[in-house]
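A note from the maintainers: we've had questions about how concatenated examples are separated. There is no special marker in the raw files; a new sequence line simply starts the next protein. For clarity in this README we add a label.
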Amino acid sequence: MSGAGLLDGRTILVTGITDAASLATVVAAELARRGAHVVCSALGPTPHHEGLSTRAHDHLAATLESCRKTVDREVGGGAETIACDLTIDASIRDLGETLGGRGVSLDGVVHAVARDRTLARGGAPGLVDVSREDFLDCLDVSAYSLIALLRELLGTGTLARGASAVSLSYLAAERVVTHPYSTMAVAKAALERITVELAHQLGRSHGVRVNAVRFSPYTASRAGGSIRGLERAEAHADAVAPLGNAIPEDLAREVAHLLTPGLSVTGEIRNVDGGLHLLASGPSDPPAEGA
């Protein structure tokens, strides 16, 4: 089955698009191909960014414009991009009220945002050396934002009863990896636990399904390309996983499946990694010779 048309009439919010190779972009394109109307949120200037310097404002504006161009080019199908800062509750509320004011009701949400300042700076210190500020920022953006996003969308009446939310995770949430990822690994572990708790609570209160999908090591995106040593983990995973390393389209199809209406599936942490999770060693670098 091609899957085309399975999401006809559904409106789905996708967060986390940065460039054409980002996983969120591939997911959004697959959702549009299946008939969904896709709305994308992107970091950009909002009324809640007070006291910004001209340089900071211009950076946010350029980020938003880049995302819009990516969405127009890679997703198409009338997909639109709206500025939203997922670390500011009022900004998420504005997003919900904007959509609600247009009569838009969201049937699905894809949470694909993450940030680790230590990775962005190229330092990637061990966990014991991570500052409180960097650690809390990573958890805020990469994990807590799922709570804030669903809360505000429910509060504005924008998230439909019976909707589905899917977040993107990684096997490092469970296993130690040798490439620099320790702070983000803790954040992904928190994200997965949040997924389970929200699945229980929101399923009972709103019929909302909440699931997460772990994906293979992936270096083609801007985020993945910034992680030192991840290319070795990617090659190792491709060599040892029973089906080889998964590709972004595999992830997109699984996310689309979890967003399909009528599924009684919630609280799941799915693995789309070619079977890498079956092995005793996780997505680590190959051992040194003689080890």
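[label: protein 2]
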Amino acid sequence: MFIEIDKVIKKIKEKNYKRILIQVPEGLKTEVVKIADKIEKQTKAQVFISVEPCYGACDLPLEEARILRSDLIVHLGHSDFGVKTEIPVFYIPVYFDLKIPEKLKEEISKIKEENLAIYSSEPFKKILDDLENYLLKIGKKIVSKKIILGCSEMKNSAEANIFVGSGNFHPLVLRGKTYFLDLEKNRLGDLTAEIKKEEMKKKARILKFEEAKKVGILVSVKPGQFYKDYDIIKKKIEREGKEGKILVLDEITNEKLGRFGFDAYLNTGCPRILDNKFGKPIINLKDLF
């Protein structure tokens, strides 16, 4: 794992920042105290650590930073998502400097499809380059090469996809024939059936939503997820003969929604909340309109 902490320290010294709030995703929380110690020792700035869940660069701790009077947020693990903030945010991606094992290359060589689209999440960006070089070497054609997010909207662009990385969170946004080069489990798997299963679940949720009479419209206050046209959506719902109420919340959980008695929910925030289990049908805005 490679984290460019020296870039953070240089920026803090250049701008003379005094109060720093660090935010990291779950996978980096075992390292964050060491990182905070290094920053404090080399800059003399006071460093605070956010321990709330972090789901990406769309989920910045702006309110915490304001309360703490922080003059800089250091966000580790993701690139700039384009969220506009009054408090400066310095994004530091994290990279794994690895090579694809020869055993996995042998498995990749057995893939029958010729025209391939290859994908990864940002921490595995360098490994995506290694995959591209190997596929070209064995005569495959790369029709698309992208870094994707868990909320990316993807369409088929090749005979098959290959995702290289760790965990199912990112590759399940892909469509069509999809191979998963899982570097955590050191194996090449086929996610096509699982992706089709997710598509069937989505269709079933839409059918249940269409039957609903009372709908809760979920509006997230996370800075990169806030949907400003919630009133327009409410009017569309009501024109369809449904009763719509706007529910405002930060983290969307079943525990928060279980007490209101709605028939279904329309989610305008992070589309991946549907990975969690809910007692009532929830559909994403982009799946309905």
